Amino acid sequence: MAKKETVKLTPEGLQLVTVLDYGSIAEMNGFYQKEVFFTAGFEGEKSYLYQALGNLGAYARDYDFDKDISLVIIGNGILESYKNGNPQSFIPELEEKLNMNSSPYRRMKFISEDQLTWYLENRIKLTEDEQLAGLIKKYRESKKKCSSGNLFS
């Protein structure tokens, strides 16, 4: 019998996965008809990003982390906390789900909050989508309002 392959998440490994998956968003046909999950730890108000992705045809949510998710967007706060040795509850939950037998969670893509905003800003440059530009501007403004390091959940 073959030895079961297990996943052990590290801050560096998770960062690497987000970089690699960011590069494959175009291959995924962007966000159209994708189930997108937002973790906690965002630096701004996620509702603007929900609306932006909804306008691109995605279904965004921050509850019910289940096997139907195509893309997970990890808040900068989660990544920073993990890098500093304090994994948030999402990290052990993700590791547990990745290690399930025949885990459907292994097919998910992962990107960071910053990578999502970079993608959307590049899309705005290409398409000149004023509505999307307005939503990203509001998101950036909400990040500035976030005082003393408090993150949006």
Fold blueprint:
Elements (H helix, E strand, L loop, with lengths): L10 H12 L12 E4 L7 H10 L3 E3 L9 E4 L1 H8 L6 H9 L10 E4 H15 L2 H16 L8
Parallel strand pairs: 1-2, 1-3, 3-4
Tell me what the structure shows.
This protein starts with 10 loop residues before the first helix and ends in an 8-residue tail after the last helix. The mean pLDDT is 89. The chain has one domain (11-145): Rossmann fold (3-Layer(aba) Sandwich), CATH 3.40.50. It has a 4-stranded parallel beta sheet. The protein has helices spanning 11-22, 46-55, 76-83, 90-98, 113-127, 130-145, and strands at 35-38, 59-61, 71-74, 109-112. It has 153 residues and is α/β, with parallel strands linked by helices. The chain has 6 helices and 4 strands. Helix 2 (46-55) links the parallel strand 1 (35-38) and strand 2 (59-61).
CATH topology label: Rossmann fold
Beta strand count: 4
Reading side by side through the largest sheet, how are the strands ordered? 2-1-3-4
The CATH homologous superfamily name equals BRCT domain
Strand fraction equals: 5-15%
Mean pLDDT: 89
Number of domains: 1
String of helices and strands: HEHEEHHEHH
Q: Please give the share of residues in helix.
A: 40-55%
State the shape: globular
Number of helices: 6
Spatial extent as radius of gyration: 16 Å
Question: What does the main sheet amount to?
Answer: 4 strands, parallel
| Class inferred from helices and paired strands | alpha/beta
CATH class: Alpha Beta
- Identify the CATH architecture: 3-Layer(aba) Sandwich
First-to-last CA distance: 43 Å
